[in-house]
């Protein structure tokens, strides 16, 4: 699991805002509106390729955590990302990982600090609860899962907000709603219930 950001000075910590799922849904709906030319906000998904393949927020940009914060080329890639976003008219970035507990906050703070150092008027936000909460609120827990815990399909409105949803990648749980199948199976192999708030392995 990546290290959580070090304690930040109050002034720096305020540079990353927490954004609710309700507000994120409104952002996606605005981005998808045919009548809207608003490109001022961009959602950035920093989950792994495997996680992203199971479903992602419609219209989100996929930039894996490892490519932004690991290796010698990471800082250059992060700087390139910011430059491209600003060039396309973006002035607010909303970052998320699976649960927005480790990778998402780390990337959000890194991008906010880099933007500040470069004098870019770019606001950085963190999606509260990450993709896990977004998916579950979009699904609305309507009807739960199959008798064997299989994931239900998305509603038509949900499909407008979540792209690439693959039912086999998710399991329905009584405590946490939809959770990645891999995380559920790992917990079951240890004789445990899926941890509340999601498996820590998902933040590795």
Count of extended strands: 9
Helix content: 25-40%
Low-confidence stretches: 1-14, 197-202
Q: What is the residue-averaged pLDDT?
A: 84
C-alpha end-to-end distance? 4 Å
Order of helices and strands: HEHEHEEHHEHEHHEEEH
| Range of strand content | 15-25%
What is the top-level CATH class of the domain at 10-131? Answer: Alpha Beta
Structural class: alpha/beta
Describe this structure in words.
By secondary structure, this protein is α/β, with parallel strands linked by helices. The protein has a domain at 10-131: Rhodanese-like domain (Oxidized Rhodanese, domain 1, 3-Layer(aba) Sandwich), CATH 3.40.250. The chain contains 9 helices and 9 strands. It has helices at residues 10-13, 21-32, 49-53, 65-69, 74-87, 103-117, 130-139, 156-161, 181-189, and strands at 16-19, 41-45, 56-57, 61-62, 92-96, 123-127, 162-163, 170-173, 177-180. The strands form 3 sheets. A 5-stranded parallel beta sheet has the order 1-6-5-2-4. Helix 6 (103-117) links the parallel strand 5 (92-96) and strand 6 (123-127). The protein is globular. 36% of the residues are buried.
Short description:
With 204 residues, this protein is α/β, with parallel strands linked by helices. It has a domain at 10-131: Rhodanese-like domain (Oxidized Rhodanese, domain 1), CATH 3.40.250. The protein has 9 helices and 9 strands.
């Amino acid at each position: 699991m990546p290290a959580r950001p070090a304690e930040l000075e109050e002034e720096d910590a305020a540079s990353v805002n927490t954004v609710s799922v309700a507000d994120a849904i409104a952002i996606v709906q605005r981005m998808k509106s045919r009548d809207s030319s608003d490109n001022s906000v961009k959602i950035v998904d920093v989950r792994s390729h495997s996680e992203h393949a199971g479903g992602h927020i419609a219209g989100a940009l996929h930039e894996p955590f490892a490519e932004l914060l690991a290796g010698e080329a990471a800082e250059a890639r992060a700087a390139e990302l910011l430059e491209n976003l600003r060039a396309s008219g973006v002035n607010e970035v909303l970052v998320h990982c699976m649960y927005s507990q480790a990778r998402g906050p780390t990337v959000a703070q890194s991008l906010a600090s880099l933007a500040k150092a470069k004098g870019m008027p770019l606001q950085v936000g963190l999606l509260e609860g990450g993709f896990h909460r977004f998916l579950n609120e979009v699904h609305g827990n309507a009807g739960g899962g199959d008798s064997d815990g299989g994931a239900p399909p998305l509603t038509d409105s949900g499909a407008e907000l979540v792209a690439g949803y693959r039912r086999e990648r998710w399991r329905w749980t009584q405590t946490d709603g939809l959770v990645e199948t891999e995380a559920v199976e790992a917990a079951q192999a240890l004789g445990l219930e899926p941890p509340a708030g999601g498996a820590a392995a998902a933040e590795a």
